[in-house]
Design goal:
Mean pLDDT: 94
CATH superfamily of the largest domain: Aspartate/ornithine carbamoyltransferase
Low-confidence stretches: none
Shape: globular
Helix content: 25-40%
Order of helices and strands: HEHEHEHEHEHEHEHEHHHEHH
Number of helices: 13
Radius of gyration: 19 Å
CATH architecture of the largest domain: 3-Layer(aba) Sandwich
Number of strands: 9
Number of domains: 2
Bound molecules: N-carbamoyl-L-aspartate
CATH class of the largest domain: Alpha Beta
Distance between the termini: 27 Å
Largest sheet: 5 strands, parallel
Length: 304
């Protein structure tokens, strides 16, 4: 790996527990309401080839609350539409003076390609079905605000796990800390290699089994187009896998209900569950700002 990868955050898989804990500790010291100009005069380029609300806005607010300048480049309305390659776009944004590049791309490996060729740190804001490391960090941060430790915690992940970079990064992170993870979803939505992914990983057939005794439940978005590729009709999905109040009651009394968003009320979870006191969905979004502040500060070597 060349020096450009220094400061980059491409995935959780290759981070060790110490690096993760130090990022989380740094995030705890960040307060977006009390801005500190740690990144004054730094230019943060946000390069989004895919739709985003939470990730994009929280990166932008994180950067700005540390005094950085931000420039947003979307695939529509940029030269990407004219057929410019990913790397040529990267070289262009480096030439205009980017100090760090945040990238979301539909293809796995796009951030790695950029980090290998560019001289600036690259942060993966979600690449295809591969990883979404900043989401996993904000999820761990959120869990640790409610639970003392990740070790021995029982976590149920429900929905379309196979296509989810959120699930993949969460599994990488949590399994480094000894969390017991149970996956549940239609067979088409489960990774075939799940059991070889991590030792503490289990698959259950029913949501009830997955949720029973859980400390935390992560529900994932289900895309109707993908559901159409399974044997299930929307109504079958709802009756078998939807997170309902009755199912949530099977978890520990103090279990937290997570979802990376965007949520589809009435499909993967009920309206009631989305807004119940155990739901930390809004808090996850809120925590995305200090966590991304820490990630940007670390990428630019401005941690104190
Ligand atoms: C997720 C993503 O884009 O991977 N959203 C997010 O960043 N919070 C999840 C999804 O779109 O289903």
């Amino acid at each position: 790996m060349n020096k450009a990868a220094r400061g980059s955050l491409l995935g959780i898989e290759h981070l060790d527990a110490k690096e993760i804990l130090s990022l989380l500790a740094l995030a705890r010291r960040m307060n977006p309401l009390k801005p500190r100009p740690l990144l004054r005069d730094k230019r943060v380029l946000l390069l989004f080839y895919e739709a985003s609300t939470r990730t994009r806005s929280s990166f932008e607010i994180a950067a700005k609350s540390m005094g950085a300048m931000t420039t947003l480049v979307l695939s529509s309305g940029s030269s990407i539409e004219k057929g410019e390659s990913l790397l040529d776009t990267g070289y262009t944004l480096q030439a205009v003076g980017a100090d760090v590049m945040v990238i979301r791309h539909p293809h796995a490996g796009a951030p790695l390609l950029m980090a290998t060729h560019l001289d600036v740190p690259v942060i993966n804001a979600g690449d295809g079905m591969h990883e979404h490391p900043t989401q996993a960090l904000l999820d761990a941060y959120t869990i640790l605000r409610h639970k003392k430790t990740l070790k021995g915690l029982q976590m149920a992940i429900i929905g379309d796990i196979y296509h989810s970079r959120v699930a993949r990064s969460a599994i990488h992170l949590l399994s480094k800390f000894g969390t017991r993870i149970t996956l549940c979803g239609p067979p088409e939505f489960l990774p075939e290699v799940a059991t070889s992914l991590a030792p503490g990983l289990h698959i259950t057939r029913t949501v009830e089994e997955a949720v029973r005794g859980a400390d935390a439940i992560m529900v994932l978005r289900v895309q109707k187009e993908r559901l159409a590729g399974t044997k299930l009709r929307v109504q079958d999905y709802i009756s078998r896998y939807q997170m309902t109040t009755a199912r949530l009651k099977m978890a520990k009394r103090d279990a937290i209900l997570m979802h990376p968003g965007p949520i589809i009320r009435g499909l993967e979870l009920t309206w009631e569950v989305a807004d119940c006191p155990q739901s930390v969905i809004v808090e996850e979004v809120h925590n995305g700002v200090p966590v991304r502040m820490a990630i940007l500060a670390k990428a630019l070597g401005k941690t104190s």
